[in-house]
Amino acid sequence: MKKTWIAFISVVAISFIVLIGVGREIYQTQPPIPEKVILKNTGEVIYTKEDIQTGQNVWESIGGMEVGSIWGHGSYVAPDWTADWLHKEATFMLDTWAKEFNTTYAELDVEKQAALKARLIKDIKTNTYDENTKTITISAERLNATKSNTAHYTKIFSEGKEQYAIPKGALTDAKKLAQLNAFLFWTSWAASTNRPNADYTYTSNWPNEPLINNTITNSSIIWSGLSIVLLLFFIGVLTYYYLSNHEKGDLLTKPQSDPLINLKFLPSQKAVLKYFLIISLLIVLQIVLGIITVHYTVEGQAFFGFEISKFLPYSVTRTWHTQLAVFWIAATWLATGLFLAPMISGKEFKYHILGINFLFVALLFIVLGSMLGEWLGVHQFLSLTMNFFFGHQGYEYMDLGRFWQIILGVGLVLWVLMVSQHIVFAIRKNDASKSLLTILLISVMAIGMFFFSGLMYGENSSLPVINYWRWWLVHLWVEGFFEVFATVVIAYIFSQMKIISIKTAGRVSVASATIFLAGGILGTLHHLYFSGTPVKAIALGATFSALEVVPLTLMGYEIKENWSLLKSTSWMQKYKWPIYFFIAVSFWNFLGAGVFGFLINPPIALYYIQGLNTTAVHAHTALFGVYGMLGMGFILICLRFYSDRIWDETKLKRAFWGLNIGLIAMVLLSLLPIGIIQAYTSITKGYSFARDSELLYSPTIQTLKWLRMVGDIIFSVGIFYFCWFAVSETIYNLKRKN
Known about the structure:
24 helices, single chain, two-stranded antiparallel ribbon
């Protein structure tokens, strides 16, 4: 066991040293924001640093990543503004020069096209940033293209565009519109200008734009190949290790009756039950908002003919849909920690119920307050600074304003203190459970600590810096330490059922956490390949994120073992449905996180398909399929421990199969086919074409969008039955005496 702990500590320490080192380099080598953008020869000031930075704040205030995307990060209906700006800029300049021949660029012969393209590449890709004066110089032709783009985007954001789900009047202030365009110019400049002393741009030649020879870099290809080789190698190593060691746990005689049958239902656990009621309501609200959001992709501004976008624009409904997913899943896991804590310590602590009730009120305050703030921010009722603190920060999965983040962080600290008190009390018994409880304590403390990574940037921080810390929160907090927490909780539950020994559970949990974090910590960088980061991010991200997939390839064994549990003794049938949901988690971990995750993981793949519906495939199957299903399994296991009645299996059966069949249908009938079509377009024509409304509103794509209704309806039925069961069972337990 000592060697296992040494491996765990070494992996975590070394990984974070490297990750922080890459972060330091990101700060030092990020695309510069100039003091001024000036016109060549005349020195006329086009944009200032304040224009660009304030423009970023304006973009954030209208929804940011929920209205199209920047550098591939964001929503899928509107274009990627960087790629769209760049393509329009290049086309405008080429057509301007083609007028010398009294025609358009497309109608020129191959030789003249090649000459003009070479002129364009020299103009756009040459880095004119002066380190001494902190200025960027642009040509008169590029200025004219910028003016054309500015007029185009000003019209879109002020007058609206149905195909982009942008309502009329989304942004009407002339100064803010000009500043927004300054920010869009800068993102395009960084994506099209070569780094100093390099033959690739600040975004490693993303996006794919044939007009300026923005093509995938050699380093992206090399590290993609190496990541696949490492994946295959470590799958073999882990499979050998698993088959050699998985039978070496302490032998147990399986009990003939439920060891937990006489658990005492404590007052603090009863106080947690109300969380499950609110969580069920949040799940339903999230699904309703998802239905509205996805329908905007068909009608643009309407919901089956009703024009509701004036009050609930796409940017708001998508924000709430994604944010509620994080809220209810995180709340489920946190409530599970509070519910199981007295089981771990075997006692009640003073003020524990008060803390549970305080956190419950705080949860409601944060959810409702942040949603209201985001609505006010998107509708431009708040100043830009007020929007940063109370409105919409503009970044997927952490859209809520800084004030709400701080309140949530304080709540997490209280949660850590409450749960840790029980765990530390149990650790002090110094029995066989010490290792298992120690890794549980580490995961609990990490959940509280790593949330604060989302506070590490400020209102005017640059995009590369914000994205670096954003993925610390989204990847490390959610996908990292929450997953370690879940693994240990399940191991603890099974050890209390006497299915595995507590000693084996501890050893396996520490080993699993080591294997997962070995790839997961540095795997964070795979989100940052083309975000204004150095090549080192591609090298480390590709290598280590491939290792994240390795343990997921053995999920078949986990499914088999969980299934065998149900067959081992008759009393295990009592826990049939929680185990079914854990089996579903294993399945979606393999398919959603593993297969669909690796689909977009290598740099050579992500270069072409970042921000397309292939990302949505991974997002839905991993976020709900893994974390959502796990949260539901936790609700069921908590309710099952203390329920004194036979469950309504009809509701649970319909819920389980509705959720899984619906999710599969949603992906196979709609999201994946659309993603494949977009990927082909991106590879063959250029990234901007894959996000263009001409493709997304083509008859084929529209048919595939409507086909999604099949999966959505089945999925929604599953949600209805699960929430119906959870609410009715929770109310029953709230009413009955302890």
